[in-house]
Amino acid sequence: MKFFEHSAKKVFESEGIKIFEGHVVYSPEEAMEVATEFSGPIVLKSQVLVGGRGKAGGIKFADNSGEAFEIAKELLSLKIKGEEVKHLLIEEKADIKKEFFLSVSNNRANKTPIIMASAEGGMEIEELAKTSPEKIIRYNVNPLKEFLPYEAREIARKMGVGSELVSPIGNIIWELYNVYDKYDAEIAEINPLILTDDGLIAADAKLEIENDALFRHQDQVKQNRFRKKDFAFVKLDGDIAVIGNGAGLTLTGMDMVTLFGGKPATFLDIGGGASDGSIRKALNLVLNYAPVKVVFLNVLGGITRADDVARGVIAALDDNKRKVNIVIRLTGTNEEEGQKLFEEAGIPYEISLEEAAKKAVKLCEEIKAKEAK
Ligand code: GDP
Ligand code: MN
């Protein structure tokens, strides 16, 4: 099974290899939102299982969230070697001083693992293999013996990297071999491993696990599955957006709104363990749905703590320059902290579901009356 770069990176990280913190996005809107969390330029990377994305135009940079939106739109409509791009990995754009190539795979002819490494990594590695094969160090590992860190350092030395890099690159070779070994990989590869002011970082990651061994690596397999949607989002024909955490609670919110004479515009269940990030996303989602006049957010703190919800709401309201008519009901775990945050931010809230639903319906009627004038 081939792994997407983002899930391969998680596996590499678990063995000690440094990666950038990344975000996976599925739409230009999400890319725009994620981009606002970075202070500098970002890289948007098409997540496909074929290689050579860079050359195929699947790796692009953006300086701000507007650009991120446009580029994400472009990349998400791209096909790379016949494979549709369905999601992107967003990371900070690295300032690259040097690119290295490291790989561990099966040497079928020799019936051993083989480590290949070069101080001239990057997109031209295949070209290099043809024109200057001597620049790629090849080292067969005895599978019956433990592969030791000093052997890895020896490979790094042969790569001809600066003496100060022999030990850190040796370490990464050793860690990459451990990934290969522990995860029953057919290939584990970093191209490029980059040198930055913050040290050595895996800027790309390739991992393929033997299909017959997948049963041993179910957690990694799950990571690699295409994400199902965060939210259950249904557009309805009313004007009050109902958001809740949990399907039951969301439905109850809709019932209450209906009971007091209102009409729900959405059913949006943000799920049980919703983080403050997903609340921001949920709010942005309904606020971009035109018929919505009032947002009714019905949260019961459980796994999701009420203070996290409050932070999410405050952040999302800050994001939206336009005035948002929102009625919030907040109770449950950590409710005091959450309510305090709202009070400090000057955002009103309710504790009773009934009161909150009534208020949302009334607010919506007032807005419509005003608009009718
Ligand atoms: P691949 O073409 O599918 O192997 O995709 P990679 O992830 O290896 O990216 C291709 C190339 O894009 C790399 O060799 C880098 O030169 C460049 N690249 C990728 N990420 C960054 C980044 O964060 N900053 C800069 N400056 N270049 C990057
Ligand atoms: Mn690469």
From TrEMBL:
Catalysed reaction(s) here are: GTP + succinate + CoA = succinyl-CoA + GDP + phosphate; succinate + ATP + CoA = succinyl-CoA + ADP + phosphate
Identify the pathway.
Carbohydrate metabolism; tricarboxylic acid cycle; succinate from succinyl-CoA (ligase route): step 1/1
Please provide, in alphabetical order, the Gene Ontology terms of the cellular component aspect for this entry.
succinate-CoA ligase complex
GO MF term set: ATP binding; magnesium ion binding; succinate-CoA ligase (ADP-forming) activity; succinate-CoA ligase (GDP-forming) activity
Annotated ATP binding lies at 45, 52-54, 91, 94, 99
Keywords (A to Z) from UniProt:
ATP-binding, Ligase, Magnesium, Metal-binding, Nucleotide-binding, Tricarboxylic acid cycle
The segment(s) forming the ATP-grasp domain are: 9-223
Cofactor needs: Mg(2+)
Manner of cofactor binding, per the entry note = Binds 1 Mg(2+) ion per subunit.
Establish whether keyword Magnesium is in the entry. Answer: yes
The UniProt record lists the EC number as 6.2.1.5
The leader peptide range reads none
Q: Name one GO biological process term.
A: tricarboxylic acid cycle
Sites binding Mg(2+) sit at 191, 204
List residues binding substrate.
245, 302-304
Q: How does it assemble?
A: Heterotetramer of two alpha and two beta subunits.
Q: What does this protein do?
A: Succinyl-CoA synthetase functions in the citric acid cycle (TCA), coupling the hydrolysis of succinyl-CoA to the synthesis of either ATP or GTP and thus represents the only step of substrate-level phosphorylation in the TCA. The beta subunit provides nucleotide specificity of the enzyme and binds the substrate succinate, while the binding sites for coenzyme A and phosphate are found in the alpha subunit.
Concerning PANTHER family, the annotation shows:
SUCCINATE--COA LIGASE [GDP-FORMING] SUBUNIT BETA, MITOCHONDRIAL, SUCCINYL-COA SYNTHETASE BETA CHAIN
Q: Which family does it belong to?
A: Belongs to the succinate/malate CoA ligase beta subunit family.
Quote the protein name from its UniProt record.
Succinate--CoA ligase [ADP-forming] subunit beta
Q: Which lineage do the record's taxonomy fields give for this organism?
A: Archaea, Methanobacteriati, Methanobacteriota, Methanomada group, Methanobacteria
